[in-house]
């Protein structure tokens, strides 16, 4: 700092002319900046007005056209079930989660007819789905053995084009997964060469809308060399629902805005919120239960966890070509992915299975494995 007073006069003395010119230029530049700023503020105001006008125009159309833009904030219908929710939950027929047997023979015929149908996704909450084979969502569980050939016949009984994409297939998607027009049917074959549990879904654009409307399911390809024998095998397809109304007085349809914003109203195992809390899956003490889990999304993963136990075997990503991992607490199942999990539970009780991303539990992605005949209820 001591040198500062000496240098300053030196600089002023030698560059006095330059400093004056610089100050003048700086003044002019500042003036220009002020003018440009005023112009920019005006332009931004105009743009805001234009955007508001567009939003106003788009809003009335949004009830009919799910691709229209809705203004933020989006309205959540999370947890809005009917007042008699408990009775309705009891009356609901839970989706059968038990893994069906493998059909005999080398060729397995799978027939699905697509239908537009209204289903219940939570107590009293109705939703307009585009459904595989009259099952609502998810579609039927397909079970084959590695090496079998699947002959898939898709009949489109809906009102717009649809398709079916099997993650278990190695096949040219532009051929096999092509759109099938309303009223038409289409058959293709693929060899189930890779064991695991896989997602299938409609692949017609926009895929986000077709999956969100319930067009998904699971196919289990059991390995040629069987996995260790277990006492129970259950299939769980995790998914989320994005609704434009609460679905109580009239069925809800898709809110594409909420689907894009990843703001589900309900999340479920096998399409209905909390259904296995009311109608638990069962096992006896000392038995081993296997869960085949697929995260159908359309966008969110499921962090699979069974409360009160630890996975004895976890085939992460449903890779059964390698030995399972052991002693695992939670496994992320990616959207469009799968996992296989064994739990051997010795002690009688109610064991919740959840997505441990706990917003999912709050929105309905939770069920119970009832081991033995325990007394009382589970609080979550
Ligand atoms: Cu579709």
Characteristic terms for this protein:
Immunoglobulin-like; 32% strand; 7 helices; 380 residues; globular; alpha+beta; binds copper (II) ion
Protein model, in words:
- Helix content is 23%, strand content 32%.
- The chain is of the alpha+beta class and 380 residues long.
- The chain folds into 2 domains: 4-60; 86-371, Cupredoxins -  blue copper proteins (Immunoglobulin-like).
- A hairpin with a 2-residue loop joins strand 1 and strand 2 (125-132).
- The protein is globular and about 50 Å long.
- Mean pLDDT is 86; it is low at 1-66.
- The structure holds copper (II) ion.
- Residues 130, 162, 202, 204, 210, 215 line the site of copper (II) ion.
Query: For the report, how would you describe the main beta sheet?
Result: 5 strands, mixed
Bound molecules: copper (II) ion
Termini separation (Å)?
A: 69 Å
Helix and strand pattern = HHEEEEEHEEHEEHEHEEEEEEEHE
The low-confidence runs, each spanning 5 or more residues with pLDDT under 50, are 1-66
- Rg value: 29 Å
Number of helices: 7
Chain-averaged pLDDT: 86
CATH architecture of the largest domain: Sandwich
**CATH domain class name of the largest domain:** Mainly Beta
What is the SS-derived class? alpha+beta
Helix content: 10-25%
Question: Could you give the order of strands across the largest sheet?
Answer: 10-9-12-16-14
CATH topology of the largest domain: Immunoglobulin-like
> How many β-strand runs?
18
- The total number of structural domains is 2
* Shape call: globular
Question: Which range does the strand content fall in?
Answer: 25-35%
CATH superfamily of the largest domain: Cupredoxins -  blue copper proteins
């Amino acid at each position: 700092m001591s040198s500062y007073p000496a240098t300053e006069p030196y600089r002023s003395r030698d560059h006095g002319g330059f400093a004056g010119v610089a100050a003048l230029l700086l003044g002019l530049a500042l003036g220009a900046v002020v003018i440009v700023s005023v112009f920019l503020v005006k332009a931004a105001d105009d743009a805001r007005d234009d955007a508001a006008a567009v939003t106003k125009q788009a809003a009335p159309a949004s009830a009919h056209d799910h691709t229209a833009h809705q203004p933020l904030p989006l309205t959540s219908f999370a947890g809005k079930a009917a007042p008699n929710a408990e009775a309705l939950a009891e009356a609901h027929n839970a989706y059968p989660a038990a893994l069906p047997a493998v059909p005999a023979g080398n060729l397995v015929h799978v027939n699905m007819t697509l239908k537009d149908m209204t289903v219940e996704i939570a107590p009293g909450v109705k939703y307009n789905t585009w459904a595989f084979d009259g099952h609502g969502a998810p579609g039927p569980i397909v079970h084959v053995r590695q090496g079998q050939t699947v002959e898939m016949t898709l009949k489109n009984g809906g009102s717009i084009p649809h398709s079916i994409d099997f993650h278990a297939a190695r096949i040219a998607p532009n051929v096999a997964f092509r759109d099938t027009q309303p009223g038409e049917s289409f058959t293709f074959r693929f060899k189930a060469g890779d064991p695991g549990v896989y997602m299938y879904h409609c692949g017609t654009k926009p895929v986000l809308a077709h999956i969100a409307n319930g067009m998904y399911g699971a196919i289990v390809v059991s390995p040629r060399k069987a996995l260790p024998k277990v006492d129970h095998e259950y299939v769980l397809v995790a998914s989320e629902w994005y609704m434009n109304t609460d679905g109580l007085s009239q069925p809800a349809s898709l809110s594409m805005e909420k689907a894009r914003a990843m703001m589900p109203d309900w999340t479920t195992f096998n399409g209905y919120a909390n259904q296995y809390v009311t109608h638990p899956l069962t096992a006896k003490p000392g038995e081993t239960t296997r869960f085949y889990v697929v995260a159908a999304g359309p966008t969110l993963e499921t962090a699979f966890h069974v409360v009160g136990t630890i996975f004895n075997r976890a085939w992460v990503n449903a890779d059964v070509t390698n030995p399972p991992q052991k002693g695992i607490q939670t496994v992320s199942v990616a959207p469009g992915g799968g996992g296989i999990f064994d739990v051997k539970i010795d002690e009688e009780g109610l064991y919740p299975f959840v997505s441990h991303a706990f917003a999912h539990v709050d929105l309905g992605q939770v069920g119970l494995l009832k081991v033995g005949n325990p007394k009382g209820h589970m609080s979550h």
